[in-house]
Specification:
alpha/beta; transport; 5-stranded mixed β-sheet; 15 helices; globular
């Protein structure tokens, strides 16, 4: 079963990395071209939805011709940044260890997430009840992170369960068909599963660990983009800053724009947005300057070190370009 799931996962991941769509914005003579990745949920798409909205026209305003590509997770986008297939992308907290290892730069913080869950089939009463059971998880993602934290809290490790690496869409089908007993996953996909398995059990969520670790989502750029094409990086960050301000001031309109972009019902996107804390531009500027974001990232680095993703402490200033973010203010 493990080999079958792995093969399906690889196939789905390959497809997700090549599924692209142009938003049709920009295109003016002399505009800088940007390939931008995203995930099709509120956290991953809302700023892009604002940027491409006709009423905003933020890409054109800042001289950017953008092409967007949808991905199923953050690690795939980090990989695409490394190969030059993307210039910018979006990651959840579970992939934050990749910039920390030098594979990308974090150019803008986005939201604080509370969408991650450990879900299990009906009748499962605790994490301890999963001992020896089969758990699907997209490796290196926030689903992996919430699962690891929940196991640790229960005095367990991944060696106590049967881990099956899966792509997000594979988890949906595997859980609904009861081929797996549990999953480290996230909303809105958990909501999709609930339509078929309404009695599933949520065993853990982000807020269970709020005292020890934060779960920031972020936008990332390829290392070469930041170091060799600073002007383009500044323009893109300026777009993100404008979109962040608009989103915090006009959340309902942003939800509507995101629903239109993702071709999803507005009520579904609204429910998804409720699983995140939207941060204003002034908050992000303040958190950058007062060290709050560094504190978030150091807390995450402690987790990633314990999880074996990092070998030791990493200074957030080596991969979070806070000066670029605040410097793009107009």
């Amino acid at each position: 079963m493990r080999k079958t799931f792995a093969a399906v996962s690889v196939a789905v991941m390959a497809l997700s990395a090549t599924a692209c769509s142009s938003d049709g914005s920009g295109g003016a003579d002399g505009a800088a071209h940007v390939d931008f990745g995203y995930i099709a949920d509120f956290n991953g798409a809302s700023l892009l939805a604002v940027a491409v909205a006709d009423a905003q026209g933020l890409w054109k305003k800042h001289g950017i011709d953008v092409k967007t590509s949808v991905f199923t997770n953050g690690p795939l986008q980090i990989q695409a940044l490394g190969t030059g297939d993307l210039d910018f992308g979006y990651i959840g907290p579970g992939a934050m260890w990749l910039p920390a290892t030098g594979k990308a730069k974090v150019v803008a913080m986005n939201t604080l997430g509370n969408a991650d869950r450990v879900i299990a089939q009906a009748g499962t009463t605790s994490m301890a009840a999963l001992k020896g059971k089969t758990i699907g998880v997209p490796e290196g993602t926030s689903g992996d992170m919430i699962l690891t934290l929940a196991l640790r809290k229960a005095g367990m490790t991944k060696d106590d369960v049967k881990i099956v690496p899966m792509d997000a869409s594979t988890i949906v089908s595997a859980f609904t068909s009861k081929q797996i007993d549990a999953a480290g996953f996230w909303y809105p996909a958990v909501g999709t599963i609930k339509k078929t398995v309404p009695d599933l059990v949520e065993l853990a969520r982000n807020e269970d660990f709020a005292d020890t670790v934060s779960f920031p989502t972020a936008f990332v750029a390829g290392n070469d983009v930041v170091t060799k094409d600073r002007a383009k990086a500044e323009k893109v960050v300026a777009v993100l800053r404008d979109a962040i301000q608009y989103r915090s001031d006009h959340l309902d309109e942003t939800i509507a724009a995101t629903a239109k972009m993702l071709k999803q019902p507005p009520e579904q996107v609204k429910a998804d947005a409720a699983n995140s804390k939207v941060l204003s531009l002034s908050e992000l500027d303040g958190y950058t300057k007062d060290g709050t974001i560094d504190k978030w990232l150091k807390g995450m680095n402690d987790y990633f070190t314990g999880a074996g993703k990092l070998t030791g402490a990493v200074d957030p200033k080596t991969y979070y370009t806070g000066d670029l973010f605040t410097g793009a203010a107009k």
